[in-house]
């Protein structure tokens, strides 16, 4: 039990808002009065704004300069059962009276208004809801470092409404993440949300009386705290902040949530966050050739049995060869149309491969380049795997590497690279090839290789927009184990679909740009050999779907493939903020 500290909050302003909740409003006002008495006993000045007078104008005036804001009333968070879209003009905020003349009526279409995230931040635009623009304009201005406490407001701690099924961990995390964002973004030092008995009274009393207690400790002493049940994540939107959720209660749902920097306190809101638990390393060079060499140098010791070499100018040959390289235990290195780049030559000198396998015909890797590779192979053997086109080359690589009866064959479009990037290391680790197809027609070379392979099952990489359902139906004739598809809404979600279907967790995750192919394909054999996931990111930052998958995988190390020009240091900061 936490000892009660002496009064230490003189002059602090605490604002308590009670929104309209119909017949439940009287009970909310009673709880608000109890919280007010607790704050006053701790030495604070209390301002109460209760329905039916909890209009935006009245609330806006009251919270100006507030040190602690407590809201009781309807919550409207995201995800929710009502919309697949996060409508930030009305979610992640407060349900208030439109006017003071409608009593405690909570009809959201006529007497109550949800003043959401944009209303709090003062960023409503002409495209937002008419009610929000009419009744919620102008933003709010609490004191810097204020504390936001939600009490008995649906969605705010992670749980939904009374008719909902209990939230999953992912849904609860998303709700606290989204609901906490606007207040933390405007300068709050902490976000707390509780549906537990006396939860808000405890929070107000403890924060006011113990200004040096870190918010992490405030949460740990809170009613219902359970160290075994609590889950802690980095806040995907705010570097240095975290999101804490936990199941509690006799009907276990997510009744308590916290977001912010757990090292901060009411008296020291700007305390630095603790260092991230995630180790991040980078394999990179000055260009795609040097990056492939750097990946190899970090992953393979001299004396490898084979080194695969492909053009760095296009993707198909390296894509098909990545799984083969993983199976044979060698790296994927790149050459240019002008010959063997210095970085590639230097790495081959270090590797001393037993043999070198060139992927693709002489139009992409010239005979002169092939011949110049011979001195780097300790056996002197340099051979070419190629066909008349990309489909035939992929089939030739498969035929050279895999015998009949493979456990799986992966099939990807030969027209573009993104969908297959994350699948190549999985193919290698599972002992199957990557073959290529057209969008609407299965090439003869691919079909013939599948006849030879007799795969136990077939996996398509990518949606029906790149490999049609007609091709999927045709593929069924080549396996007795069925045809599965791994796909998402875009290249990043497709990579996540691959890793979700393959990995329960991962100590190491590889991360590469999804905007181009060389770095991911150079890392594919290594990821396949070590059986680790490969995820993709754009230059702009970590997509939500990738962030969620990283949290699910819970790695201790992320290896970035490529330079800061393709995967920036800002993404490194985002990564580290995900893992406190």
Overall mean confidence score, pLDDT: 94
Outline the low-pLDDT stretches.
Answer: 1-5
Strand order of the largest sheet: 2-1-3-6-7-10-9-8
Distance between termini? 27 Å
Outline the biggest β-sheet.
Answer: 8 strands, mixed
Number of strands: 22
The value of Rg in angstroms is: 29 Å
Estimate the strand proportion. 15-25%
Coarse structural class: alpha/beta
Contiguous helical run count:
20
Estimate the global geometry from the Cα principal axes. Answer: elongated
Helix percent reads 25-40%
Whole-number count of domains? 2
Q: Overview of this structure, please?
A:
The protein is α/β, with parallel strands linked by helices and 580 residues long. The protein folds into 2 domains: 13-260, 3-Layer(aba) Sandwich (Rossmann fold); 281-578, no CATH class. It contains 20 helices and 22 strands. Strands 2-1-3-6-7-10-9-8 form an 8-stranded mixed β-sheet, with helices on both faces. The protein has a 4-stranded parallel β-sheet with strand order 11-22-20-21, with helices on both faces. A 4-stranded parallel β-sheet has the order 13-12-14-15, sandwiched between helices. The longest helix has 17 residues, at 25-41.
Provide a short characterization of the protein structure:
This protein has 580 residues and is an alpha/beta fold. The protein has 20 helices and 22 strands.
List the helices and strands and how they pair.
Layout: E1 13-18, H1 25-41, E2 45-50, H2 56-63, E3 68-72, E4 94-97, E5 112-115, H3 117-121, H4 130-135, E6 147-151, H5 169-185, E7 190-194, H6 199-209, H7 215-220, E8 230-234, E9 242-248, E10 253-260, E11 279-283, H8 288-299, E12 306-311, H9 316-328, E13 332-335, H10 342-351, E14 355-359, H11 367-373, E15 381-385, H12 390-401, E16 409-413, H13 418-421, H14 423-430, E17 434-437, H15 444-453, E18 458-461, H16 469-475, E19 483-486, H17 491-502, E20 508-513, H18 518-530, E21 534-537, H19 544-553, E22 557-561, H20 569-578
Parallel strand pairs: 1-2, 1-3, 3-6, 6-7, 11-22, 12-13, 12-14, 14-15, 16-17, 16-18, 18-19, 20-21, 20-22
Antiparallel strand pairs: 4-5, 7-10, 8-9, 9-10
């Amino acid at each position: 039990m936490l000892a009660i500290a002496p009064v230490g909050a003189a002059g602090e302003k605490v604002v308590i808002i009670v929104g309209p909740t119909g017949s439940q409003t009287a009970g909310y006002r009673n709880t608000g009065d109890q919280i007010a008495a607790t704050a006053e006993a701790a030495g604070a000045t209390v301002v109460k704004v209760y329905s039916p007078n909890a209009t935006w104008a009245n609330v806006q005036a009251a919270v100006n300069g507030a040190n602690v804001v407590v809201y009781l009333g309807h919550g409207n968070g995201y995800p929710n059962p009502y919309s697949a879209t996060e409508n930030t003009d009305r979610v992640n905020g407060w349900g208030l009276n439109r006017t003071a003349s409608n009593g405690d009526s909570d009809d959201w279409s006529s007497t109550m208004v949800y003043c959401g995230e944009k209303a709090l931040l003062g960023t409503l635009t002409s495209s937002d809801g008419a009610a929000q623009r009419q009744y919620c304009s102008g933003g709010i201005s609490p004191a810097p470092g204020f504390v936001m406490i939600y009490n008995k407001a649906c969605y705010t701690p992670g749980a939904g409404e009374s008719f909902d099924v209990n939230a999953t961990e992912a849904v609860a995390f998303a709700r606290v993440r989204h609901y906490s964002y606007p207040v933390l973004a405007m300068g709050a030092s902490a976000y707390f949300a509780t549906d537990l008995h006396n939860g808000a009274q405890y929070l107000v009393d403890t924060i006011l009386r113990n200004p040096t207690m870190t918010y992490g400790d405030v949460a740990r002493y809170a009613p219902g705290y359970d160290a075994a049940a609590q889950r802690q994540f980095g806040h995907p939107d705010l570097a240095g902040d975290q999101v804490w959720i936990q199941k509690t209660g006799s009907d276990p749902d997510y009744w308590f949530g916290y977001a912010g920097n757990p090292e901060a306190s009411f008296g020291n809101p700007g305390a630095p966050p603790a260092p991230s638990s995630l180790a991040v390393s980078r394999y990179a060079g000055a260009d795609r050739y040097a990056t492939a060499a750097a990946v190899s140098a970090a992953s393979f010791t001299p004396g490898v049995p084979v080194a695969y070499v492909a053009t760095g100018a296009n993707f198909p040959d390296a894509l098909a060869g990545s799984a083969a390289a993983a199976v044979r235990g060698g790296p994927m290195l790149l050459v240019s149309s002008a010959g063997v780049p210095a970085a590639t030559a230097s790495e081959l000198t270090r590797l001393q491969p037993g043999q070198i396998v060139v992927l693709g015909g002489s139009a992409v890797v010239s005979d002169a380049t092939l011949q110049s590779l011979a001195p780097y192979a300790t056996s002197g053997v340099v051979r070419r795997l190629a066909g008349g086109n990309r489909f035939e080359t992929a089939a030739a690589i498969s035929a050279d590497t895999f015998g009949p009866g493979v456990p799986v064959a992966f099939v990807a479009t030969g027209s573009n690279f993104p969908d297959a990037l994350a699948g190549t290391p999985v193919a290698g680790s599972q002992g199957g090839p990557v073959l290529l197809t057209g969008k609407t027609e299965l090439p003869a070379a691919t079909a013939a290789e599948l006849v030879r392979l007799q795969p136990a099952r077939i996996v398509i990489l990518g949606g029906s927009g790149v490999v049609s359902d007609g091709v999927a139906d045709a593929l069924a004739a080549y396996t007795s184990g069925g045809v599965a598809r791994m796909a998402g809404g875009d290249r990043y979600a497709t990579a996540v679909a691959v890793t979700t279907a393959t990995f329960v967790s991962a100590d190491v995750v590889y991360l590469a740009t999804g905007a181009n192919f060389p770095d991911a394909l150079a890392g594919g054999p290594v990821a396949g050999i070590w059986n680790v996931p490969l995820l993709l990111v754009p230059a702009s930052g970590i997509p939500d779907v990738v962030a969620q998958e990283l949290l699910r995988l819970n790695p201790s190390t992320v290896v970035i493939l490529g330079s800061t020009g393709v995967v920036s240091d800002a993404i490194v900061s985002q990564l580290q903020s995900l893992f406190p």
